[in-house]
Amino acid sequence: MxxxxxxxxxxxxxxxxxxxxxxxxxxxxxxxxxxxxxxIARTMNDEDATVPAAVARRLPxxxxxxxATAARMARGxxxxxxxxxxxxxxxxxxxxxxxxxxxxDPSEVLGLIAGGPSALVTAVEGAEDSKEFAAEDxxxxxxxxxxxxxxxxASGRTPYAIxxxxxxxxxxxxxxxxxxxxxxxxAAAAEHxxxxxxxxxxxxxxxRLKAGTAQKLVLNMLSTITMIRLGKTxxxxxxxxxxxNDKLRARSRRIVALATGATDAEIExxxxxxxxxxxxxxxxLLAGVDGPAAARLLAASDGHLRAALEAARAH
Length: 315
Description:
Elements: H1 8-18, H2 37-48, H3 51-56, H4 59-74, E1 79-83, H5 85-96, H6 98-102, E2 109-113, H7 131-140, E3 148-153, H8 159-170, E4 174-179, H9 185-189, E5 192-195, H10 210-229, H11 246-260, H12 264-273, H13 278-287, H14 291-300, H15 305-314
Helix pairs in contact: 4-10, 5-10, 7-8, 11-13, 12-13, 13-14, 13-15, 14-15
């Protein structure tokens, strides 16, 4: 049998993991498997309840990263997530939900996962250990200095995430490093370091738990608030929603109703003359303009409905 001593690399890595909060062992939970199911569920729920407070402690850093991201995206840049395993999957999930929610082009918010798309459902061994893979993936999407790259890694030491941030920063792109350990290499490598320290996991080292929840909360903020800054919403209404199925078509009509107070007949007419574009339909109803005028006003306002309304009322 081969011992760890025969592999200095593993001994070094083990020592590194020993020093990570996300990998820490909880002696108080050493016999959790002997507890009742309800007691385990209650303990797990109590652990999860600590995550929002950990996020709250980093809101200034999160807000600064969002403002910087929105400024780049307003100039035509993209938002690119890069991570391995759970972190990578969360990035892909957030990216994939932007087109239906905010009517973004699928190329505007991208999720890169170590090992490629197959890693979403099957672990690709060794992919996370390569900085080079990250550089290759970013080169393949034609990274520019207008883009923002978010490296995601619970440990903050994953080579793929760090490699993505280093490659992006060297090319002038905005970089954000999201991790769940203080003093992480990932945060140090990025222009904007965000470290959500959630403490040891219920199952030692299982960072799909609290760390994964923390990452999901931050990614929700990053994409949602960036889209609010870019004018993808009107108040708290998703006025850029893409009506691609019956539920979303019904939601689009409800959004127009909430924004305007118009009758069903007026809403149907407004959507008919604006090819179903919710934002344009609201503008025709609130400003009393026709479809082409609404499109022109929105184009001149970079898609910001409030600004387009003010421009229409100023005339």
